[in-house]
Amino acid sequence: MTIDAQQQETFTIGEVAERTGLSVHALRYYERQDLLVGPVQRTSGGRRIYTAVDIDWLQICVKLRESGMPLADLARFAALVRQGSGNEDERLKLLDEHRQHIEAQIHALEECRALIEWKVGVYSKHLRAGTATGLWDPGHGP
């Protein structure tokens, strides 16, 4: 399929929901919140029709939301993209700040994982040794 044919192919809201993992309700919400980079086209009967470009953008939105980007930041990013060229530095700043936030979350989760791994090791050691009864039980004396 050529790029022109791909861009001209249209999809129903149900097909877009299936391809993006968003519900039909979420797609309508994204549209109302101006999270899309272009207006959703409609058939003469008023039904929404989407393009491959819309799906690509929505898949980016899904990943940004899954990574914890607030809707306000996503809306700002979409607005910048809609404005066209000339604001790439603002887009980069927004994405870089989000990346830094994610890296801080990953670091915090790695610290949590290390503590849990240590705790699992302690419990495993005591269970193998038969000394786990009362382990960290505030009602059980030393």
Task: Give a quick set of tags describing it.
142 residues, 3 strands, single chain, 2 domains, Multidrug-efflux Transporter Regulator, Chain: A, Domain 2, mainly alpha, 6 helices
Describe this structure in words.
- With 142 residues, this protein is mostly helical.
- It has two domains: 1-84, Multidrug-efflux Transporter Regulator, Chain: A, Domain 2 (Orthogonal Bundle), CATH 1.10.1660; 88-132.
- It has helices at 3-8, 13-20, 24-32, 52-66, 71-83, 88-129; strands at residues 10-11, 41-42, 48-51.
- A three-stranded antiparallel sheet has the order 1-3-2.
- The longest helix has 42 residues, at 88-129.
- The model has no long low-confidence stretch (mean pLDDT 91).
Topology summary:
Elements: H1 3-8, E1 10-11, H2 13-20, H3 24-32, E2 41-42, E3 48-51, H4 52-66, H5 71-83, H6 88-129
Helix pairs in contact: 5-6
